[in-house]
Design a protein that fits this description.
Blueprint lengths: L3 H6 L7 E2 L2 E2 L1 E2 L10 H14 L9 H21 L7 E4 L2 H12 L8 E5 L8 H10 L2 E5 L9 H7 L4 E7 L11 H10 L3 E5 L11 H4 L3 E5 L10 E5 L1 H6 L10 E4 L4 E3 L13 H17 L1 H20 L4 E4 L8 E6 L4 H10 L2 E2 L1 E3 L4 H7 L4 E5 L6 H18 L1
Parallel strand pairs: 3-15, 5-6, 5-7, 7-8, 8-9
Antiparallel strand pairs: 1-2, 4-10, 9-10, 11-12, 13-14, 14-17, 16-17
Helix pairs in contact: 2-10, 3-10, 4-5, 11-14, 12-14
The structure holds ligand C6P.
Length: about 400
């Protein structure tokens, strides 16, 4: 059982007001809020041991290095990576995807095929289109149905001996669909293709085991998991990370530099040029400790309760349509009411202290599929409550009444 009253006390922001009303934060899919235990780690870092890492013999640098590397181990354990050097710190999911897309530019040739899904965030579309432009590779798309589910039979027909890479999100940010990534990975491996899974939206709800999944690359952002912005992780199988060229050149990613030739450092440093987000990395570790102390099964089951409760209540509103009706969903509800523009609903509920996201959610192909400009997206976290959902539903009713 999750003690939501106690948990809410960990999040200072949840006691603030917005427009004279208590904040109701339902924009967790965009970024999650930060508990005091994690904020304290940021304050401690800058108050006590702020220093550059892997470079200094002085005490502060050693302390910061130890904590940064300890965070890498925490992240390794969380995702069950076989080796800590398979965990590469990034600035977030977008950075991780671009690193791999850039790396594959040297491995692909004209006529090779790569597969994306219809359910992707722009971060998992645009870098691959750029890769295809550079290499002459062909981009194929796994289609989806009205429920927002991928058509797996169609996926199988897209896979050929020319398929080199498949990249799909674990969970759709716009609809909440949980994709059958085990099958996607296994089928891709049958034709010898590598698989990158965008775990940005799954990671706050589902603890992915990268070894059990046998996934080649898995990317996440800390800020969706009670951590800070500007930091994330790319998990890559050691054999792939050794095979791919580095993404950026600079300090810390080298073994030796002369004007004739540079040799690269071992993993993970080969992919970590320059001074990293040291505080961010350490804090990401603390955020995972915080979430693991609550437990991902407990989190998922509570959020599922919120999802079912909110879905039933919202569907009672005349003319409200929910986009994304897979029975495998995280706690995300995307909806519209009649022809009302989602932005107008978002603006009215904001006046009532409620934060939701409106628009295309950086997933325009999904909006095109439904022939809509965007949706209102409410996304729940383990610190939200049914009482907040009740207030939200009343606010949406009020907005619908005013706007229709
Ligand atoms: N989605 C949302 O409101 P970054 O910005 O690099 O941390 O994450 C990008 C990203 C990649 N893939 C998926 C599935 C995502 O959901 C996101 C971020 C946020 O839906 C902000 S656009």
């Amino acid at each position: 059982m999750l003690d939501v009253t106690a948990i809410r006390k960990d999040f200072p922001i949840l006691s603030r007001e917005v427009n004279g009303k208590p904040l109701i934060y339902f924009d967790n899919a965009a970024t999650s809020q930060t508990p005091k235990q994690v904020i304290d780690v940021i304050v401690d870092y800058y108050s006590n041991y702020n220093a550059n890492i892997h470079r200094g013999v002085h005490t502060l640098s050693q302390e910061a290095t130890d904590k940064y590397e300890a965070a890498r181990k925490t992240i390794q354990t969380h995702f069950n990576a076989a080796k800590s050097h398979e965990i590469i710190f990034t600035s977030g999911t977008t950075h991780g995807i671009n690193m791999i897309a850039n790396g594959f530019a040297s491995l692909l040739k004209e006529g090779d095929e790569v597969i994306v899904s219809a359910l992707e965030h722009h971060s998992n579309i645009v870098p691959w289109q750029m890769l295809c432009e550079k290499t002459g590779a062909i981009l194929k798309v796994i289609p989806m149905n009205e429920n927002g589910e991928l058509l797996m039979t169609a996926y199988e027909t897209l896979l050929t001996e020319n398929t080199k890479l498949v990249f799909v999100n674990h969970v759709s940010n716009a609809l909440g669909t949980i994709n059958p990534i085990e099958t996607i990975i296994n089928k891709a491996h049958e034709v010898g293709a590598a698989v990158l899974i965008d775990g940005a939206q799954a990671s706050p709800h589902i603890k992915a085991d990268v070894q059990a999944l046998d996934v080649d690359f898995y990317v996440v952002s800390a800020h969706k998991m009670c951590g800070p912005t500007g930091v994330g992780v790319l998990y890559g199988k050691e054999e792939w990370l050794n095979k791919l060229p580095p993404y950026q050149g600079g300090g810390e990613m080298i073994a030796e530099v002369t004007f004739e030739k540079t040799t690269y450092a071992d993993l993970p440093h080969k992919f970590e040029a320059g001074t990293p987000n040291i505080c961010g990395g350490i804090t990401f570790g603390a955020a995972l400790d915080y979430m693991n102390a609550i437990g991902f099964d407990t989190i998922a089951s509570y959020e599922n309760e919120l999802l079912e409760y909110a879905t039933a209540k919202l569907l009672d509103i005349d003319g409200l349509r929910i986009y994304g009706n897979s029975n495998q969903k995280t706690s995300v509800i995307s909806f519209n009411i009649g022809n009302v523009h989602p932005y107008d609903i978002g603006t009215i509920v904001d006046k009532l202290g409620i934060a939701v996201r409106t628009g295309h959610h950086c997933a325009q192909p999904i909006m095109d599929f439904y022939n809509i400009p965007g949706t209102v997206r409410a996304s729940f976290s383990f610190y939200n409550t049914k009482e907040e959902i009740d207030i939200f539903v009343e606010a949406v009713k009020k907005a619908a009444f005013m706007l229709q």
